[in-house]
Amino acid sequence: MTNSQGNGQQADSALFPTYARYPIALVKGEGSRLWDAEGKTYLDFMSGLAVTNLGHAPKQVRDRLVEQLDTLWHVSNLFHIPQQEEAAQLLVKHSCADAVFFCNSGAEANEAAIKLARRYQNLIAKTGRTEIITFHQSFHGRTLATLTATGQDKVKEGFAPLPTGFRYVPFNDKEALLAAITEQTGAIMLEMVQAEGGINMLNPDFAEQIVQCCEEHGLLLIVDEVQTGMGRTGRWFAHEHYGLSPDIITSAKGLGSGFPVGAMLAKAKLREAFGPGSHGSTFGGTPLAMAAVIGTLLAHEEEKLAERADEMGQYLMQELQSKLGALSVVKEIRGMGLLIGIECDMPVSGMLAAAQEAGLIFVTAGPNVIRLLPNLKVTKEEIDEAVQVLVHVLQQAEVTA
Ligand SMILES: *Cc1c(COP(=O)(O)O)cnc(C)c1O
């Protein structure tokens, strides 16, 4: 695209310059492939940031959406919405939760989780313990409460005054966690893999420590599965890898295969904390959004996509280790299922641009980490193709460093 400024924004744009955009406009997608306005094709190892987990335009979801488009788009949550019940039953079936609240994004799901935890501690458990512990490098969203929960200063810059009620602890630091728990603490909120924060994996012994703390002090465990959920890490939800049974789980990105929808899932004891009138959303759980969710969940069941992510993730990891592991630019390759980070000893923005030029799309996780998020139906051939481009791009970076 021409006429673009240094920040990736077109000079005559009518949009806020909130995103440093790549100089590409994508116009069509099918499976793992994307096409730009000039007809160039790309292999998509980003999936719209872990959203299009079934690939682009998956038929099962498309067919349900089209049928719903011809029937009913929106009513209001003042009516029963049978599709919401059906979608919730499916989510409950595949998680440790008993009740679901539908919203429209990850931030909204986390916002609901924060509200529910406070309300439970205030009105049901009547402990008054409302402070929530979150972790350095975490990411929980862009609303005022969720950016405050986020353990990264850059997300908060200029947005003061921020809400109170959060305390931050270094990730995987047991001593610091123990020291941070007070009479005020009511919940611990975390990601199983800090994705935006650099693909930082939760240590199993830290997970154990968290469970112990929750049991000992009556804390609620909130797991943000907005990016790690929906099969991404090789399980329906990433906390299953750790044997955790969270009180609250949040989901969004992959939940509607690209249709905007979020959900907060919680254990039965929390159900009564959100009575009529306590929380709501005009668009939360419309028949249209629920068609996307049901289509997505049924496709996951039918095609065993979590298992597939596990299998393909192992293959991708093995190929990356064997073909990239020895390069001097590569510090570490880590991840879970099809959420994989390649940490380099230099900024990776140049590699990202070179890969785009070569027809491979991925995203970063912080300045030095390449983040790979192929869809869960990715083939071995597509993985081979991506690894080949990565080898080329990283070798070039090594030569020019
Ligand atoms: C993307 C993300 C969010 C925010 O989701 P939005 O839909 O952008 O509001 C929250 N938590 C995690 C872990 C995420 O990856």
From TrEMBL:
**Reaction catalysed?**
N(2)-acetyl-L-ornithine + 2-oxoglutarate = N-acetyl-L-glutamate 5-semialdehyde + L-glutamate
Give residue numbers for the modification (N6-(pyridoxal phosphate)lysine): K253
This chain belongs to the protein called: Acetylornithine aminotransferase
**EC number(s) of the enzyme?**
2.6.1.11
The protein's GO terms of the molecular function aspect are: identical protein binding; N2-acetyl-L-ornithine:2-oxoglutarate 5-aminotransferase activity; pyridoxal phosphate binding
Pfam families for the chain: Aminotran_3 (PF00202)
Q: What does the record's cofactor remark say about binding?
A: Binds 1 pyridoxal phosphate per subunit.
Q: What else is known?
A: May also have succinyldiaminopimelate aminotransferase activity, thus carrying out the corresponding step in lysine biosynthesis.
Keyword Lipid metabolism recorded: no
**Where, by residue number, does N(2)-acetyl-L-ornithine bind?**
R142, S281
Q: Which organism is it from?
A: Paenibacillus aquistagni
